[in-house]
Amino acid sequence: MSIVALLSVELHIPDANSLKAKRMVLRRVKDRLKKFNVSIAETDHQELWQRAALAIVAVSSTPTAVREALASVENEIERTAPMMVTRTHVDFLT
Q1: By the 8 A CB rule, do 5 and 66 touch?
Q2: pLDDT of res. 30
Q3: Residue 35 belongs to domain spanning
Q4: pLDDT tens, per residue, the chain with 94 residues
Q5: What is the tally of structural domains in the chain?
Q6: Do 36 and 30 touch, CB atoms closer than 8 A?
Q7: How far apart are CA 9 and CA 43, in angstroms?
């Protein structure tokens, strides 16, 4: 049986003064997360310069593996975009 979990991340990007600047920050974050074998999508606030919402999904055969993967992803986001994370939430989908 597969376990699916969704990590929702809200970001505030104070230095973004255009959508192009925001996309550059998000691209850097997404590129750093490729090594975790997760799916990533920007899900909200596409029209705002300084705000972003990312949805990150992980799938595994055990809940522990999914939790560890998403914890690693969350830590990497904190390292890549320090002090930009305003909210995170994990949901397990069954």
Answers
A1: yes
A2: 93
A3: 3-93
A4: 789 999 999 999 998 999 999 999 999 999 999 999 999 999 999 899 999 999 999 999 999 999 999 999 999 999 988 888 999 999 998 6
A5: 1
A6: no
A7: 10
The 3-class SS string of the chain reads CCEEEEEEEEEECCCCCCHHHHHHHHHHHHHHHHHHCCEEEEEECCCCCCEEEEEEEEEECCHHHHHHHHHHHHHHHHHHCCCCEEEEEEEEEC
pLDDT for 41: 96
Pairing label, strands 3-12, 51-60:
antiparallel
Six-digit token pair at 63? 């809940």
